[in-house]
Amino acid sequence: MDADSLLLSLELASGSGQGLSPDRRASLLTSLMLVKRDYRYDRVLFWGRILGLVADYYIAQGLSEDQLAPRKTLYSLNCTEWSLLPPATEEMVAQSSVVKGRFMGDPSYEYEHTELQKVNEGEKVFEEEIVVQIKEETRLVSVIDQIDKAVAIIPRGALFKTPFGPTHVNRTFEGLSLSEAKKLSSYFHFREPVELKNKTLLEKADLDPSLDFMDSLEHDIPKGSEAVVQGDFMWLLSRCGFGWPCSWDSCSVSMRVLEHPDGEGQCPGGAAQPALAGPHLLPCSPHQELWLHLRGHWREEHGLALHAIEWEPAWMFLNRV
Amino acid sequence: MEDSTSPKQEKENQEELGETRRPWEGKTAASPQYSEPESSEPLEAKQGPETGRQSRSSRPWSPQSRAKTPLGGPAGPETSSPAPVSPREPSSSPSPLAPARQDLAAPPQSDRTTSVIPEAGTPYPDPLKQSSDKRESTPHHTSQSEGNTFQQSQQPKPHLCGRRDVSYNNAKQKELRFDVFQEEDSNSDYDLQQPAPGGSEVAPSMLEITIQNAKAYLLKTSSNSGFNLYDHLSNMLTKILNERPENAVDIFENISQDVKMAHFSKKFDALQNENELLPTYEIAEKQKALFLQGHLEGVDQELEDEIAENALPNVMESAFYFEQAGVGLGTDETYRIFLALKQLTDTHPIQRCRFWGKILGLEMNYIVAEVEFREGEDEEEVEEEDVAEERDNGESEAHEDEEDELPKSFYKAPQAIPKEESRTGANKYVYFVCNEPGRPWVKLPPVIPAQIVIARKIKKFFTGRLDAPIISYPPFPGNESNYLRAQIARISAGTHVSPLGFYQFGEEEGEEEEEAEGGRNSFEENPDFEGIQVIDLVESLSNWVHHVQHILSQGRCNWFNSIQKNEEEEEEDEEKDDSDYIEQEVGPPLLTPISEDLEIQNIPPWTTRLSSNLIPQYAIAVLQSNLWPGAYAFSNGKKFENFYIGWGHKYSPDNYTPPVPPPVYQEYPSGPEITEMDDPSVEEEQAFRAAQEAVLLAAENEESEEDEDEEDDYD
C-alpha cells in the first residue's frame, strides 16, 4: 500500500480481518513520511507486517523512479524507527530455507540448525554434525523477497514501460472492468519477468510491449492456486470506483496482492499458507493428481527453497495492495 | 432500396401468376373484345413478371412517365375506385377487370389506373378496414411489416385523390362492387368459350409492370438526401396514424419535416451493449433490506424487540476493542454483520447469540454466528438424528448380506461413536453461517465425532459453498457444511477463553456430574466477578481459562465407552475385551487455565500483548492463539470477547502430509491348504505309492472279502 493513501488501503483490506490498531496507523503515517524524505524514495509502500511470537515486524519498501527496479526494504518493530534490510541474495535464501516455524520478533535472534555433513578424511567418510546459526534478519530478508516474487501482483495496465526502459505508473489507469477482472491473465507478477523470455514468438505476438512486459498469472503452477475472490472487497472496491476485486494466491502464499501503484486502491487478501501443502488443500479434485505430480518436480528443483518456507497464516502481512 | 424490394415483387409476381391463372381464364371473355388495343402489349407483358427488375431498369422512362399521372394529376375517384374491390376478393379476379375495361375507353389512362389498383387500392382511407386489408395483403408480401408500410405508403393516393369526396367513396365502392359482380356474372357466362391463353395474361402483367414502375420510381433514392419518397411517405403515414393529430392536412408539411428530421436522431440499434450487472448490485439490493428492516417494524413490536434484543450482542463494542488490538473487520462490514445478526435473532427463537467470527474461503467467506436456542425450540434436530441412525442401520444390514456368501472378513468396523446431544459437548451451540451480510442464514448440522476425528487429519481450504464435496484422504463423512461445523467445534474448543473468575461452575448440578463424567460441563457467569488488572492478564496466562470443553481424541467432549456395548453383542470375544479395555480418556476439565496448554515444537500456544505501548494505562489485553492463527481474545479487565478470522486451519510447523493408509488386512485364515509348497519329486511319489500299496496289501490279507471292492476302486 502506498504510504500516502494508507488509510484508504487499510479500509479496503479490512475484510481479511487484519488491520492496524489506531496507534500503529498514526505512527506509520508519520514515520513513513520521514522515511520518504530521508531515503529520497519516489514512493514508499507499506508492505505489511509479519507476526512474531514476541513482536511483529512492520515492513516498508521504497521505490525509485523506475518501478521495476530493485526495491529497498525497511523494517520496524514499533512503527516509528526504521532500519534498512540488506538485499536478498541466493545464498541467504538457501541458508534460511532450512528454518521452520514462527518468527520471534527479534532480528538478532539466532536459529540453530544442525546439518549432517560428509567429511572426507583420507579414505574414510565421516558424517559430522554441524550446527548452523541463522539470524532471523537473514530469514526475514529472504522471506520478504520470496513473497514479493511469488505474490506481488498488479493489474494489467497499471504500469507501463517506456521505450527507454524504465517502468512508470500509468496515471490513466482506472481499474479493470468486471469481465477483465475475473481473468487471471489481467494480472501480472510485479517483478522482473522470468517466464516471458521463454515464450515463443507466436505466443508473444498478441502482447503489447508497453503493457505486457511482465509475467501474467495465467500460467502459474499449480492452476487454481490463485482465486480471484469477489467477496466483501468487491463492494468496497466498486464503491470507490475500482472495478477490480481482490485476489490472492491461496497456495504458495494465500495472499494475492493487488497493486495499484498510484496508490489509489489496494487491498491485501489475507495471510500466507504453507507452500507445499497447497495442492492437498485445493478443492479442485480433477486436477489433483496433476498437481501432485508437478509438486514432485518442484521439490526436486527448488526443494530446499520451498520446503522450509512456510508462510504461515499466522504472520499476516498487509502487502501493498 | 430497389434491391430489397425487387425480390418481393418477384415473389408477388410469381404468386399472382399462380393465383391469377384461374381468374384470367374467366377474364378472357373480355380479351377478344379488346384484342386490338392490347395486341401490342402481350409480349411485353409476358416478359414483365418474369424478368422483373430488369425489365424495369431497361426502360427507365416508362415508370416515370406513367407513374406521374397517378400522383401528379388529380386521378379522380373513378380511377381509384375499383381498388377496394380487390382486398375483399382474395381471388383478385375482378380488380384487373375493371381497369381492363377502362383501357378501352382511355388507353393512355390505363397505365395510371392499373398502377393504382392493386397497390393503392388495397388500403382504403377508411381506417376501419385497415385491419382486414392488412390481413389480406400479407400473403402478397413476404413479411407483414413490409405489408404494413406498403399499405400505408399507398394511402396517400386515395387521400390525395379522393380527398374531395371521401364520403362518397363508400358509395362508390358499392357501385363498383356491383359492377364487379356483374362482370363476374358475365365472366361466368363467357367461361364456356375457351379463351386464348396468351391473351389472358396480357392485362395483369401490364398492370404488374405499371405497378412496379410506379413503385420503382417512388423507391428511387434521392441523390441529395439519400432517402426515397416511398419510405418517407410510409413513415409519415405511420406517424399520422399513430399520433392522429387534429387536422392532419394542415400540418402535413410540418409532419413531413419532422419525419425527415427524425433521421438525424440516434437510432435504436439491435446490437446493444448489455449493461454490466456487477454482483455488487445484487448484494447491495439484499443489504438494503437489512437497513430497512428497522423501519418496517411498527411501534407495536417494540415489546417483542426488547426480548429479541437481549439475544443480540453488541458487535460494535467488541469490534471497537478488537480494532485496538489490530484485528477485526472494517467498521462498515461489522455494522452490516450487526444488522444481519439482528435479522437472525428476529426471525429465530434465539436465547443468546454471538458473532463467532469469519472463515475465509476461496470463493466466498463464511460469517459465523453462534446461537443458543430458547428451551424446547430445537425439535427438528431429533428428527434428523433418527433419520441418520436409520441410514446407518440400513448400511450395516446390507453389508451383512454380502458377507454370508463371501469368505468372512475379519474386519469389524469400529463401533460408531454416537454424537453428543444438542446442548452438550461439541453440540452445545448451534451455528448459523452466511456468505455475506444480507444473504440468508444457514443452520449448520450438528457435528458427529467421526467428523471431528477426520477433520483433525485433513487440511482443506473452504470454498464458500456449503454443499461442496470434501475430497480427501481419509474420506471425510459429509460435505463442506459438516467440515465447517467440525472446524468450528475444534476452534471453539481450542481458543475460547475468558478471564479467570468470569465464569464459575453451576453449584446445583455440578458435583454429581463431576463424579459421573469426570468434569463439570456447565457454568454460569459469576456475579461477583470484580475484574482482573489488564497488566495481570498480559503477564500471566494462568489468568485466562478455557470455557469450552476440550474435545477428546474420540471426537466427543464427554467420553463414551464404546466397549460396553461390544460386550453385549459379542460374548464370544469376552477374553479379548480385557486386553482391549480402553482407559477412560479424560480431557482437561472446564475452566482450566490456558497456561497448561501444550506447546507445539517449542512454540508457545498463546501470545499476550498490550494493545498499545504508548498509552498503557488505557490499553487492553490481547490474547492471540498460535495454534489457531486468527483466533484472538481481548479483555479490558471486565469484559472479554473471543473472535476468529482466518482460514480455519490449525498451525503446524511442518507441511501437511496425509496420513499413511492403514496396514493391509488379512483376508482369510492362512492354513496348510493354501500354503505354497514344493512339488514332490518322482522318488518321493514312488515311495508314497509304495507305502500306500503296502498298506493296502496288508488290508487285503486281513480282510480277503473286500478284495473286489478295492479292485473297483482302482478302476
UniProtKB/TrEMBL annotation, chain B:
Biased composition (Acidic residues): 375-389, 506-516, 700-715
Biased composition (Low complexity): 29-42, 54-66, 80-100
Biased composition, class Basic and acidic residues, residue ranges: 8-25
Protein name: Radial spoke head component 4A
GO cellular component terms listed in the entry, alphabetical order: radial spoke
Cellular compartment(s): Cytoplasm, Cytoskeleton, Cilium axoneme
Compositionally biased spans, kind Polar residues: 140-156
Record keywords, A-Z: Cell projection, Cilium, Cytoplasm, Cytoskeleton
Gene from which this protein is expressed: RSPH4A
One Pfam family hit: Radial_spoke
